[in-house]
Structure formats: C-alpha cells, structure tokens
Amino acid sequence: MTGAHRGSRRPLFVLTILVGSFLLFLVQPMVARMVLPRLGGAPAVWNSAMLVYQALLLGGYAYAHWLGRFAVRRQAMIHLGLLLVAALWLPVGLARIAPPAPGQEALWVPLLLFASIGPVFFAVSAQAPLMQRWFAADPRAGDPYFLYAASNLGSFAGLISYPALVEPMLPLEKQSIGWTLGYVLLFMLVAAAAAARWGRGPESDQSPDTAGGEARPDWRRQVHWLLIAAVPSGLMLSTTTHLTTDIVAMPLLWVLPLGLYLFSFVIAFSSWTSLTNVIVTIAPALLLLVGGQALLGTGGGTMLVALASLVMLFVVATALHGYLYFLRPGPRYLTLFYLIMSAGGVLGGAFAALIAPLVFNWVYEHPVLVLAAAMLLPLPALLPWEKWLGLRRPLPVVAALVAIAAFASWKLVATWDGTLHGAHVVWAAIIVAVGLLVIRWRWAYVAVLFLLMLGFGGVQTLEKGRDGMRVRSYFGIYTVTDDRYHQQRRLAHGTTLHGLQRTTPGHELDPTTYYGHQSGVGLTLDRLPELAGPDAAVGIVGLGTGTLSCYRKAGQNWTIFEIDPVMADIARDPTKFTFLSRCAADAPIVIGDARLQIAKLPPARFDVLVIDAFSSDAIPLHLLTREAFDAYTRALRPGGILLVHISNRFFDLEPVLAAEARGRGWSAAIRLDPGPEDSEFGDLTGSNWVALTATPARLAQLTRGLRPRQNAAANDTWVALRGEAGFERWTDDYASTLPILLWGNLIGKHE
Q1: What is the pLDDT of residues 232-259, one digit of tens each?
Q2: How far apart are the C-alpha atoms of 129 and 234, rounded to whole Å?
Q3: 234, 274, 326, 572 - which has most CB atoms within 10 Å?
Q4: Backbone angles phi, psi at 559, to 5 degrees
Q5: Considering the entire predicted model, what is its pTM?
Q6: How far apart are CA 261 and CA 310, in angstroms?
Q7: CB atoms closer than 10 angstroms to residue 512
Q8: Residues 130-189: pLDDT tens digits?
C-alpha cells in the first residue's frame, strides 16, 4: 500500500459507509413489519412510508451539504452530537401517539413514522455523503466518488439480508436490539473517521467549500443531474409494478428491481470503467428490444419476459448512473451533487408511486419512463453505417428509415392478435433493425422506439382503457373483459383472475372459480342452516366480484369487508357484475383493512368468518398472526367456524394454520378441491380451504369425518391439516414467508 493510501485511511471510510448504508436499508423493512398490524396492509400506507424515507434521505443529504460550509473539526462535533441526540430514539420502535381521527390517516401515517424513526434515519442517511467529504479533506486521498459504490453495496446487502436472514431468524424485538448495536458500531466508526481528519494539519481544518477554484455548476447542469437521477428511480418502481401487474405476480419480486437499482450504482461509481463502457454501448439496443414491449398489456407473461425486464432495468440504470458519474463535479461540490441526485430519486419515485396511480388507468408510467430513458441515455453509434457508405448528409436517409419503421408499425398494428408469429415477426424485426441503425440520431431513435411500442400491442392497450372497463387504484389495476366464446365476464387483477361470471342465460348466478359447491367454502355455506340455524351471521373478508354473496339464504345476516373502494364499486355495478346486486344488495360493505375493522366490532358477531384476502399470490401476512386470530376468535360465536382460503402458486400455508390451530387447541381440516375434471362451463378451478373451530363437534358436523389424504379429491372430502415439525407460530413480533416459500416448493417437488 502506498503512503498516500495509508494516510487516507481508506479502509476506515469504506467500512463506515458500508455499515451506515447497511443499517439504513435494514431499518426500512424492519419498521414496515412493525407498523403492519397497527396500520394494516393498505398500499397507500406503504406509499406514505416510502415518501417519508425519501424525504428523510433528502433531508440528510441537505444537512450534509449544509455542514460542508464548516471546517472538518466543527462538522465532526456537530454530526457526532446529532448521532448522540438521535440515539434517544433507540431501540427502534413505534411512537405512542393517539390514533387518527376519521379522514386524517394520510397525515397520521407520516407523523407516526417521523416520530418513530425520523431522527435516527435522518442522522444515518447523512453519513454517506459526509464521509466522502471528510475523505476528500485529505489532499492525498484522491477521488472520493468510489465510496458511493461502497455505500450502495452496503444498501444492497441490507436490503437482501432482511428477508433472507434477519426476518426468518429473529423476532422484531431482537431485530431492534441488533440494529441498536449496529448503530453503536456506526457511531464509533464515525468518531474514528473524524479523528483521522481532526489533526492532520491546517488543510484538514479547512472547509472543502473554500478549497480549490472550481466554478459552481450552473442550473442547466444541475437540472441535467436531476433528470438523469429521476429516470432510473422511477423506472425501478415502474418495473416492479409492470412485472407484478402484467407479467408475473411473484412474492418478494419487489426486492429484485430495488436490489438491481442499488447495484447499478456500485458498478457505475466504481473503478470498473471497462464494464461500464460496455454497458453504455449495449444499453440503447437493449432498451429498444425490451422497452419496445413496454405497452404490451395482454397479461400472462413468462419468467423469461420478467428476466428481460430486470436485465433492461439494470443495464439502463447502470448506463445512466455511469453518465452521472461522468458528469460529476470535483469534491468541492460533492454534497451538492448528491443532494440533487437524491432530489431526482424523490422526483422519479413520486411520479411512479403516487402521481401515476392517480392519473393513469394502466401502468403507463413504465413506457413513459422507458421513453425518458431513451431521451437521456448516451447514444454511441452501434453501427456507423453512414461512415461506411461515405454519406456526408445522412439525415434524408435517416428520415426514410424512420418512415419505413412507421409503415412496419402500421402493418403490425393492423394484424396484431396478441401473439408474435408469422408476419408479425417480420414487421417487428424491420422496426428493430431500423432502430439499431438510427441510434446515433436521438430524435429518430426515440421515434422508432415509440413506433415499436405502438405496434407491439400498444394500440390495443390504449384502446382497452377508453371504455371504462379498466380502472386503477393504489391496490392494483382491474380489467373487466367479455369472453363471448365461453360466455363469461372476467375480472383480472393484473395477471390474476379475480372473479368470473357466466353470461349464459339461467346460469349467471352460479358460483365459479374457487367458490364452487365442492370447494371448502361452498360445502360450508351450503350447509350453514344445518350448522348454525336459519338466521346465521356470516362475515366475508375479500369481496372480489361478489361471487360468494349468492350463497346467502333468506334470513341470514352477511357483512362484507373490502380494503379497496374501487373493488366495491365494480362489484356493486350491475353493468359489470350482478352477483351482489341480485343476491345481497343490502349486505353492508365495510371499507378498510379487515383485521382493523373486525377488531372494532362487538364480540360474538359471526357464525362463519371467511378470510379470502389472498389475491395475486401476495400474502397479507398480518392477517395470519396470532394477534389477527385473536380478533377472529373474538368475532366468532361459540361453535363458530373460521374458513381461510390458502390457494397459492408459491406458498404452502398449511404449516402456518396448523401451528395456529395447535397453539389454540382448535380442531382444523383442509378441503383440497382439485376442481372438476370435465365441466360444462370450464370455469371451476381447484382451491384449498382450511376450516378451524374451537368446537371439535362442530368440525365433525361439517366434515362428517376426516378421510385419508390420498382420498382428498373426493367430492366432499376433508382431510387433516398437515403441519411441519418445529414450525413456529406466526405473531406480530415474528413471522417470515421465506421458510414456507422454500418448504412449499420442496413439498411440491415430492408430491
């Protein structure tokens, strides 16, 4: 190691930044888990949380920029003092503030998060730019920007470690204690970094803002930084939404785009310039090939398409962040640079997470951000054909090529049927070829990319949004379509079928999908008069299209819980679906998170409580904890039955419910309905329903005796619930989906 490197204390600053960034991205999901039972699972809550985090991060960067006006010694004294004051909020936990008044939730959620972790998050978020500034205070240290790569490597590690290691291994209380110990380590490292710069001579006590003669970047350059930072941030969120809405609803998928986004900084701000140059070169071509499908909204995509979208995000983000690194100022304006980058991240995130759901009825923010990336990317000539041909004025040829792409796009639109085959391949290939040829001319490149989007299903996607049959809320995108061949009306929630009604005369009110008469819920509700009398009370969590409402019989009292008011509007609208209007028009629909709403009800309210809130293969984890079941138990009458729908492509939830039943001393059984082998309408699907009750005699009355598991496919067979040895009961303090994800896949491979 050279003397300069020994004097710069490079390992100390790298470790300090790694630890701080690791803690920062570890505390975000940890606090999210803490607030889940208190606030429910509404996406609006998490949007508010995201904005709080981004606002605190921006505030931390602004504080670091402000601190730069002082000498390093004073900076260290102020920042160490701030870290000590912020330690008063440790260990991490939720602030005890009064619950919100009706209609004040939007203000109360940010207040709770600010009061709970605001000072700690603010102080830790400032350490990355501040450590880089202190590092640069030693003139022998060299370029400090490589430390930003270390910062994002720490963020990436913190993000991945929470769902993979921390949550499965530790309850929340121990997570909080562990994070507090990490904070103590960070304080000691910051103090050591301060000591390394405290007494190195006069130059170490000089503010970097007063050192050097570099001119302050003008406003055009700052706006350029802002836009380049905003696009990858927004594209990261839009890719997540696009994947989970129109390609594949896979659990924990949000971790991958965010992780790739963070890792792109590691590449761009490191010394791997050759790799960055390769990525910058291929980025326009990859954006054309994959981004050209950004308006395709047919649903039912494949994992290959999902993988391509993730690769595009990583390559484009790395290219843009590499461009930012190229445009970086000298160390004197380092904190200004990071402050504007952070503001760009907030801008892109706010557009994708808050503005787009209010303005668009589909994931239009994704193609918008793809086009924005095309407008900002460096565009090195991939094929310098005009030089090979010796053209002095290539623009007329470029215009002619764009016209050819426009003709091919028109032909593609005219014949598009949702699949790429035959002539479609030829027309799409022509557009792509033109795009590759005109990369050097930005106006032509962006125009061809847009033409490819329109031809590749884009016009059809735009047309579907004009008839009022597609709506969007914070909870998802709902599309109502008619299948005239099968005489069905369908409701899709992203890529997941959310409900279906037959349009065949005389069969409009027949139960469909997971709710047939041979499903667990069908068997229970059909026998409800026998089980609970003619005036039975029923609670339904999860409305969907209202299919279950047609099981209601005269004299029964039903209450429906639905988190999304848009979903309630769809189910109530007889021009869309008629289950609710014809079978239970007077049934009250309680809007809000079901767990919170059920807890407000008087005790002993229901004879049967149906939990059917597992849509798009996502698990509302807070609905399956011991505390949630306490609320359900309180709401059930003596001898009441709790029915939980656990059909899922990725998770096997049997161990969760088996552990809960065992912990309560309840009896439980599962109906594994495979669906009919041959059906006249073909709209009944397999389903898994679990029945739980504190009264063994009531379960025996429902199931008429349990059968061996190998006979589970019989028409009315219930079998014993299968548990897992050593599986811990889920609580608000400890629950992890990773073990059941792994266990479910293992079981599936052996059955």
Answers
A1: 999 988 888 777 665 555 545 667 888 8
A2: 22
A3: 234
A4: -130, 130
A5: 0.81
A6: 10
A7: 24
A8: 998 888 887 777 778 888 888 889 988 988 888 888 888 889 999 999 999 999 999 999
Both tokens assigned to 345 = 């991240």
* Average pLDDT value over all residues in the chain: 85
Give the start-end residues of each E strand in 563-715. Answer: 589-591, 606-611, 636-645, 667-673, 687-693
Contact 618, 253 (CB under 8 A): no
CB atoms within 10 A of CB 319: 29
Length of the chain measured in residues: 751
Contacts of residue 453, defined as CB under 8 A and 6 or more positions apart, other chains included, come to 291, 292, 293, 294, 295, 367, 370
**Beta-bridge mates of residue 340:** none
Condensed to tens digits (0 to 9), the pLDDT of residues 284-296 reads 999 999 999 888 8
| pLDDT tier, 41 (very low <50, low <70, confident <90, very high otherwise) | low
Nearest Cα to 153, choosing from 262, 240, 44, 313? 262
SS3 call for 602: coil
**CB under 8 Å, gap of 24 or more: what pairs does 413-417 form?**
413/454, 413/455, 413/459, 416/455, 416/456, 416/457, 416/459, 416/460
User: Which of helix, strand or coil describes residue 476?
Assistant: strand
The pLDDT value given to residue 681: 67
Burial class (CB in 10 A: 0-12, 13-18, 19+), 135: buried
Contacts of 585 (CB under 8 A, 6+ apart): none
Phi then psi dihedrals of residue 618, to 5 deg: -90, 145
